[in-house]
Write a structure and sequence with these properties.
Elements (H helix, E strand, L loop, with lengths): L2 H13 L6 H10 L7 H8 L5 H13 L3 E6 L2 E6 L7 E6 L5 E5 L2 H13 L10 E4 L2 H7 L1
Parallel strand pairs: 3-5
Antiparallel strand pairs: 1-2, 3-4
The protein binds zinc ion (ZN) (2 copies).
The site of one zinc ion has 6 residues, from helix 5.
């Protein structure tokens, strides 16, 4: 991950009374620049670096601080870094195989949402938008 994001992580932690410990650094770098990961995948990737208890504690803290978010596919979920540390984006996820595609730089969506909020007298601060469906492979198989 970039120095800038690392500094940002440290800043958010510090302003909430936490320091940048090894597990926190590890979890953040594992989630950096990757597709969203399930807790099982995170456990697998972090097992040589931090123990399972620290992993769960750290993810819990990050969720509380808004540094990571859950993306639900059905009742299962995956974890990714939130907009605080990465660029704002949306997802399209497959209900069948769980594949997730990140949608970035769709300016039209952003301005539509902003004007939608405005029409209701709101200034939009943030939003989440998830599209769920079936990927090309799965639609072919399920047809
Ligand atoms: Zn699929
Ligand atoms: Zn957006």
């Amino acid at each position: 991950m970039t120095d800038e994001s690392l500094r940002l992580l440290q800043k958010v932690l510090k302003s909430n009374g936490y320091s940048l410990t090894q597990p926190r650094r590890v979890v953040c770098s594992l989630l950096w620049d990757t597709e969203p990961l399930s807790m099982r995948e995170l456990t697998e990737r972090s097992k040589d670096l931090i123990d399972r208890a620290s992993l769960y504690r750290t993810v819990g803290l990050f969720e509380k601080l808004g540094l990571v978010q859950r993306i639900y596919i059905g009742w299962k979920y995956k974890i990714e870094l939130s907009d605080v540390l990465t660029h704002h984006h949306h997802h399209i996820s497959c209900l069948h195989c769980g594949k997730i595609v990140a949608i970035t730089e769709e300016k039209e969506i952003e301005s539509t949402i902003a004007s939608l909020a405005q029409r209701h007298g709101f200034v939009a601060a943030n939003h989440q938008l998830e599209v769920r469906g079936y990927c090309a492979d799965c639609s072919a198989k399920l047809a």
